[in-house]
Amino acid sequence: MTELKNDTYLRALLRQPVDYTPVWMMRQAGRYLPEYREVRKGAGDFMSVCRDADLACEVTIQPLRRFPLDAAILFSDILTIPDAMGLGLYFETGEGPKFERPITCKADIDKIGIPDPEGELQYVMNAVRTIKKTLNGDVPLIGFSGSPWTLATYMIEGGSSKAFTKIKKMMFAEPQTLHLLLDKLADSVILYLNAQIAAGAQSVMVFDTWGGVLSPRDYKEFSLQYMAKIVDGLTRHNDGRKVPVTLFTKNAGMWLEDIAATGCDAVGLDWTIDIENAKARIGDKVALQGNMDPSMLYAPLPRIEQEVSKILSGFGEGGTGHVFNLGHGIHPDVNPDHAGHFIESVHRLSKPYHL
Ligand code: CP3
């Protein structure tokens, strides 16, 4: 078993006692850090950083040099799987991710294969191995993937979207075709996450950024069903420890009971729900991750601290089973000192909840 100097994050996910509430930030490595922008400039672009294990490791560690974060997250992207399926991922400045060859019909789906994690995606596993070695047991390493539904939105829309008309057209006109794609994606995600775990990831998270654009019935059929399949297919013990799995659907406050029923260890919350309400509904089954509005980091430091304190008291009594985080990724124009104050406040203000 890899010795861990700080296992607070893993313990909180398993609802075991901890001394303080652990914290990490979605997108903690990224453009708000000048040292990240420097590395990306040197490499040329974002995917070149992802493809180089030493650079991916460097930017993963950067936020941990600045702040006492309780976990590191692999530096990569959810769109590595569709890229490995041959869709041709590229980034247009200011416009986010795009695909050269989006999915348009059943024939496109029949053509795509399930990527070999130690083949087309070996660069991701190499990054995991390098980061794990470099962390040297300081904090746990989080692996991740996109949810089948969220990956499919990018693959069918050809990039980011607001109304999701192309994928919804397929969903309502040809549901079986979409199911074929989602099933291939679920199988791919299972292999991909299990390979990350074998390479050293000590917990995994599934990002379902766009599940919240569905009706309750469609969410269950087209997103949650496939995340449940992933939870069932994951390696849940490795290297002498449980490997906790966190599911995060943005805008899913209405469906927390259904998410918790998948058998995941933790549910990620965005900021549109009170954590107190979430805890009352599912806190006896799973840990909760979240849930400060990332825009709160624009506020003056005392206001950030007040919000941290509100969220901690909302989770309340006992305190374990809570991993503090933002409700979505940190914005690129946030002052890093505000992020630092946020992290320090969580540690300081949470201690009384763990006596
Ligand atoms: O959290 C971390 O620090 C780990 C790294 C990480 C990235 N993307 C790096 C990244 C993680 C976990 C992701 C997940 C991801 N990627 C999601 C799910 C979470 C979410 O944010 O909703 C999604 C939907 C994507 C797809 C994606 N990748 C988009 C929409 C973009 C453009 C966003 C933007 O801000 O321009 C990316 C690119 C991306 N992924 C960047 C980073 C640091 C920015 C690249 C750059 O310009 O340097």
UniProtKB/TrEMBL annotation:
Keywords: Cytoplasm, Decarboxylase, Lyase, Porphyrin biosynthesis. It comes from Cognaticolwellia beringensis. Homodimer. It is found in: Cytoplasm. Its EC number is 4.1.1.37. Catalyzes the decarboxylation of four acetate groups of uroporphyrinogen-III to yield coproporphyrinogen-III. It is an enzyme of class 4 (lyase). CDD domains: URO-D. The record marks 77 as: Transition state stabilizer. Pathway: Porphyrin-containing compound metabolism; protoporphyrin-IX biosynthesis; coproporphyrinogen-III from 5-aminolevulinate: step 4/4. It catalyses: uroporphyrinogen III + 4 H(+) = coproporphyrinogen III + 4 CO2. Belongs to the uroporphyrinogen decarboxylase family. The lineage of its organism: Bacteria, Pseudomonadati, Pseudomonadota, Gammaproteobacteria, Alteromonadales. Substrate binds at residues 27-31, 77, 154, 209, 328. GO terms for biological process: protoporphyrinogen IX biosynthetic process from glutamate. It comes from the Bacteria. This is Uroporphyrinogen decarboxylase. InterPro entries: UROD/MetE-like_sf, Uroporphyrinogen_deCO2ase_HemE, Uroporphyrinogen_deCOase. GO terms for molecular function: uroporphyrinogen decarboxylase activity. GO terms for cellular component: cytosol. Residues 22-31, 142-158 form the Uroporphyrinogen decarboxylase (URO-D) domain. Its main location: cytoplasm.
